[in-house]
Design goal:
With 374 residues, this protein is of the alpha/beta class. The protein has 2 domains: 65-219, TIM Barrel; 246-373, Lyase, Ornithine Decarboxylase, Chain A, domain 1. Helices cover 29% and strands 22% of the residues. It is built from 11 helices and 19 strands. The chain has helices at 20-34, 43-47, 51-60, 71-79, 97-102, 112-120, 142-157, 175-194, 207-212, 346-353, 357-362, and strands spanning 14-19, 38-41, 65-67, 86-88, 105-109, 125-130, 161-167, 201-203, 221-223, 247-252, 255-259, 264-265, 271-272, 277-282, 299-302, 305-308, 318-323, 332-336, 370-373. β7 (161-167), α8 (175-194) and β8 (201-203) form a beta-alpha-beta unit. α7 (142-157) runs parallel beside α8. The two termini are 20 Å apart. Bound molecules: pyridoxal-5'-phosphate (PLP). Residues 41, 43, 89, 169, 206-208, 222-226, 232 line the site of pyridoxal-5'-phosphate. Residues 41, 43, 89, 169, 206-208, 222-226, 232 line the site of pyridoxal-5'-phosphate (PLP).
Length: 374
């Protein structure tokens, strides 16, 4: 990552500040609310916050497990010296399960052929069987549970695998649909027991289910977005849930100028000044993960005042019309952070761009240095 800086001050031209203490506190808050162990999710570079730093913060907050999508992400955690249980659940046909087993990575298994691949790899895998309870993404559909469980039990008796967990994932459609998935998950657990499996941990809920659907907590919850302080619960803000957004995205004004009325701003002139005004150039663009769909819509905060993106977001920059506000080159612009601190939230950018805050923080690009606050 580059550490771009403005001439004499040495301050970063753009940076994502990541409050590691907030991540730890968020996990502790959720852990206390749910009353079951927490798996901290650090896939996709910790939702853009930095996987290793986020993992350490989650563990400091009381997470006992970590979860990532694929084996390579898990190896990076092991390379960093992290020894707690780590689960992975998305594998290509050529996934190196033997390496996963050797490095004590738990393997989520989604279908019979994958189970055979894991069992054939050298060493005894710790397996979590994934059942599809209604999301229709990964995991075995109900018609295939019996065959999957029976075969897993057989492979377990032979010592080729150990079934440590059974898990699934909610669709977060509405409470009724979630409760139907809870019921389906319970059917899966009974069937697994009937086929001779005795998994030590059953887990279904991610952050939203963990906080909003107590019936979905089972033996562990998998907490991603909540640890980063963002709310997946419809109608509830971070503050409502006692969570603190961990990422604050800032840039420094790269240029400031007065323009007359009638000035067209950025590509396509979708914004035209209606009076003489001051334009501030913000050195972040869609290459950095700033959504172009937020053009003419998303808020920024400068010295406590809120303005809007004016004109289109470009690859490396966008413009903000600040009227007659006194802004100088080098002044700090906050795109999003903790709304409790009086700045826009990632959710405001998400609303402006027609997406969710998960996507806003996760897509912040590699050109934006992360600065970690303890
Ligand atoms: C990403 C993911 C999670 C975490 O979800 P959040 O909503 O961020 O808490 C949990 N489980 C699985 C299988 C996931 O893919």
């Amino acid at each position: 990552m580059s550490a771009a800086s403005v001439g004499t001050t040495g301050a970063a031209l753009r940076e994502a500040r990541v409050d590691l203490g907030a991540i730890a506190r968020n996990v502790a808050t959720i852990r206390a609310a749910v009353g079951v162990p927490v798996m901290g999710i650090v896939k996709a570079d910790g939702y853009g916050h930095g996987a290793i730093r986020a993992a350490h913060a989650q563990l400091a907050g009381g997470a006992e497990w970590l979860g990532v999508v694929e084996l390579e992400e898990a190896f990076a955690l092991r390379d960093a010296g992290i020894a707690v249980p780590v689960l992975t659940w998305l594998h290509g046909p050529d996934a190196d399960f033997a390496a996963g087993i050797a490095r004590h990575i738990d393997i989520g298994v989604n279908f019979l052929e994958q189970l055979e691949g894991v069992a054939a790899a050298v060493g005894r895998a710790e397996v979590h069987l994934k059942v599809d309870t209604g999301l229709s993404r990964n995991g075995a559909v109900e018609a295939d549970w019996d065959a999957l469980f029976a075969r897993a039990a057989e492979l377990e008796r032979r010592g080729a695998i150990h079934v440590r967990g059974v898990f699934s994932h909610l669709a977060n459609t509405d409470e009724d649909a979630d409760l139907e998935q809870v019921a389906a998950f319970e059917r899966a657990l009974s069937l697994a027991a009937e086929r001779g499996l005795d998994p030590e941990v059953a887990h279904l809920a991610a952050t939203c289910g963990a906080l909003a659907v107590p019936e979905s907590r089972f033996g562990m919850v998998r907490i991603g977005i909540g640890s980063y302080g963002l709310s997946p619960v419809p109608g509830a803000t971070s503050a409502d849930l006692g969570l603190t957004p961990a990422m604050t995205l800032v840039a420094r004004a790269a240029a400031v100028k007065r323009v007359p009325a009638g000035a067209g701003v950025s590509y396509g002139h979708t914004y035209v000044t209606d009076a003489a005004t001051t334009l501030v150039l913000v050195p972040l663009g869609y290459a950095d993960g700033i959504p172009r769909h937020a053009s003419n819509a998303a808020p920024v905060s400068i010295a406590g005042e809120t303005f809007r993106v004016s004109g289109r977001v470009a690859m490396d920059q966008f413009v903000v019309d600040v009227g007659d506000a006194e802004v100088r080159v080098g002044d700090e612009i906050v795109l999003f952070g903790d709304p409790a601190a009086g700045v826009p939230g990632a959710v405001d950018w998400a609303d402006a761009a027609g997406t969710i805050d998960y996507e806003i923080v996760t897509r912040i690009g590699a050109r934006v240095p992360r600065r970690y606050l303890p």
